[in-house]
């Protein structure tokens, strides 16, 4: 279909679905979104943290750092285009299944199908291309799932669902590392488990939490120029949106810099063997999860209660900075476990608040339009872009400094800068 034939909603169109009333339907949907994020992040954390590093090292041990950076940077292409386009297309979708469901299901199927093909790749280039398609699927699924928050939740309830999503992200990170690390030597098993998880969870979600039909909504045909122009959000007109984007970008790049090379850090910095590092990475994932669970849900509820977001973001950055300093002073397995726990505590606070903050600075909300899927996906680039760029930045730092400590130092700098950039946001306290 040509871009000139793409339909998009007219600016005054109201959101597709009315907010879900309080009570059981809202709690059920929040739990469902938690599980969707578990499935997405399990694929990403298991792939980025365990499966890809093992595959790349198996192809070329000597060039593993640079090759891993190449593989994940190729996925950068998907992160730039897939999520914003999927968000915009889901805004424009008119079907009896609603706007978001077709894209969630399609994204899950694409993710699962190509993840099963990942271990069959026999070269670094082939691995990069297969992982690229996996990331297209993940980004498509994420764009549609994230847009459900402004679609269905009133602003006063978004701290709670943001906390649930934050818990889902962290559980997913742990599940992916535990599954991939615990079964890394068992052939196709980790790929089958993670693929099945994505398909089953998304399938159950769209059946239990049915989207409102959108076939009756008005349409407006637009040309390619107008369609592409919708992806530009002027920092001058919407400074809060720009500050939120920049803050998340820096916070995420600070968090994921060392996480991306976690397996190699355990092997080359801490001194564990390949088998020990796979197993210990799973333990770290569990410890990180415990830290997040202790802080995430309570932080989201408290943020809604006091009506403030920014102090929680600042506090989380301080805790994460302390965590990132621990491996520098104590480069042992004990130090790494302490790092994982404190990082989880800080990240739990951050991830439980940040999505709520993001939904409150959307241009769609300020203008009364109906482009939440597109706008949240643009903000989502502040997460996916630094995740894609982190390996290349980290590889450059390791090469230039000759070791992994630079990753922890740069992480501290990035998360503190990210916290500083929430201060100019005026629409959120």
Automatic annotation (TrEMBL):
<keyword id="KW-1133">Transmembrane helix</keyword>
<feature type="transmembrane region" description="Helical">
    <location>
        <begin position="279"/>
        <end position="300"/>
    </location>
</feature>
<feature type="transmembrane region" description="Helical">
    <location>
        <begin position="188"/>
        <end position="208"/>
    </location>
</feature>
<dbReference type="GO" id="GO:0005886">
    <property type="term" value="C:plasma membrane"/>
</dbReference>
<keyword id="KW-0812">Transmembrane</keyword>
<feature type="transmembrane region" description="Helical">
    <location>
        <begin position="68"/>
        <end position="89"/>
    </location>
</feature>
<dbReference type="InterPro" id="IPR036259">
    <property type="entry name" value="MFS_trans_sf"/>
</dbReference>
<protein>
    <submittedName>
        <fullName>MFS family permease</fullName>
    </submittedName>
</protein>
<dbReference type="Pfam" id="PF07690">
    <property type="entry name" value="MFS_1"/>
</dbReference>
<dbReference type="GO" id="GO:0022857">
    <property type="term" value="F:transmembrane transporter activity"/>
</dbReference>
<feature type="transmembrane region" description="Helical">
    <location>
        <begin position="404"/>
        <end position="422"/>
    </location>
</feature>
<dbReference type="InterPro" id="IPR005829">
    <property type="entry name" value="Sugar_transporter_CS"/>
</dbReference>
<feature type="transmembrane region" description="Helical">
    <location>
        <begin position="124"/>
        <end position="149"/>
    </location>
</feature>
<feature type="region of interest" description="Disordered">
    <location>
        <begin position="1"/>
        <end position="21"/>
    </location>
</feature>
<feature type="transmembrane region" description="Helical">
    <location>
        <begin position="101"/>
        <end position="118"/>
    </location>
</feature>
<dbReference type="InterPro" id="IPR020846">
    <property type="entry name" value="MFS_dom"/>
</dbReference>
<feature type="transmembrane region" description="Helical">
    <location>
        <begin position="241"/>
        <end position="259"/>
    </location>
</feature>
<keyword id="KW-0472">Membrane</keyword>
<dbReference type="InterPro" id="IPR011701">
    <property type="entry name" value="MFS"/>
</dbReference>
<feature type="transmembrane region" description="Helical">
    <location>
        <begin position="336"/>
        <end position="357"/>
    </location>
</feature>
<feature type="transmembrane region" description="Helical">
    <location>
        <begin position="161"/>
        <end position="182"/>
    </location>
</feature>
<feature type="transmembrane region" description="Helical">
    <location>
        <begin position="312"/>
        <end position="330"/>
    </location>
</feature>
<feature type="transmembrane region" description="Helical">
    <location>
        <begin position="34"/>
        <end position="56"/>
    </location>
</feature>
<feature type="domain" description="Major facilitator superfamily (MFS) profile">
    <location>
        <begin position="25"/>
        <end position="429"/>
    </location>
</feature>
């Amino acid at each position: 279909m040509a871009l000139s034939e793409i339909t998009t909603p007219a600016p005054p169109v109201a959101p597709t679905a009315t907010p879900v009333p309080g009570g059981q339907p809202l709690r059920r949907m929040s739990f469902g979104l938690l599980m969707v994020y578990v499935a997405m992040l399990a694929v990403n954390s298991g792939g980025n943290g365990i499966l890809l590093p093992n595959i790349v090292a198996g192809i070329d041990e000597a060039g593993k750092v640079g090759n891993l950076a190449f593989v994940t940077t190729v996925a950068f292409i998907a992160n730039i285009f897939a999520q914003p386009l999927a968000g915009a297309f889901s805004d424009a979708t008119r079907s009896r299944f609603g706007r978001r469901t077709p894209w969630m299901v399609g994204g899950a199927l694409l993710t699962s199908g190509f993840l099963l093909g990942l271990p069959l790749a026999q070269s670094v280039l082939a691995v990069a291309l297969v992982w690229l398609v996996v990331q297209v699927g993940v980004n498509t699924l994420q764009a549609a799932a994230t847009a459900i928050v402004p679609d269905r939740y009133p602003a006063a309830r978004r701290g709670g669902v943001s906390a649930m999503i934050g818990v889902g992200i962290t559980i997913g990170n742990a599940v992916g590392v535990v599954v991939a690390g615990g079964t890394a030597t068992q052939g196709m098993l980790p790929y089958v488990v993670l693929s099945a998880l994505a398909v089953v969870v998304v399938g159950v979600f769209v059946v239990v939490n049915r989207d409102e039909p959108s076939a009756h909504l008005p349409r407006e045909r637009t040309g390619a120029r107008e369609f592409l122009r919708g992806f530009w959000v002027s920092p001058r007109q919407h400074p809060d949106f720009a500050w939120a984007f920049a803050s998340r970008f820096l916070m995420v790049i600070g968090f994921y810099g060392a996480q991306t090379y976690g397996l190699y850090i355990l092997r080359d910095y801490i001194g564990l063997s390949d088998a020990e590092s796979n197993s210990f990475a799973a333990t770290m994932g569990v410890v990180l999860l415990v830290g997040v669970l202790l802080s995430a849900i309570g932080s989201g509820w408290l943020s809604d209660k006091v009506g403030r977001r920014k102090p929680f973001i600042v506090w989380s950055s301080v805790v994460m900075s302390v965590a990132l300093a621990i491996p520098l002073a104590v480069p042992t397995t004990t130090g790494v476990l302490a790092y994982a726990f404190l990082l989880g505590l800080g990240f739990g606070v951050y991830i439980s608040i940040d999505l709520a903050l993001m939904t409150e600075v959307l241009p769609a909300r300020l203008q009364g339009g109906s482009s939440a899927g597109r706008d949240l996906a643009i903000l989502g680039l502040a997460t996916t872009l630094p995740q894609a760029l982190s390996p290349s930045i980290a590889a450059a730092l390791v090469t230039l400094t000759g070791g992994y400590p630079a990753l922890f130092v740069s992480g501290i700098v990035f998360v503190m800068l990210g916290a500083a950039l929430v201060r100019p946001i005026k629409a959120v306290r």
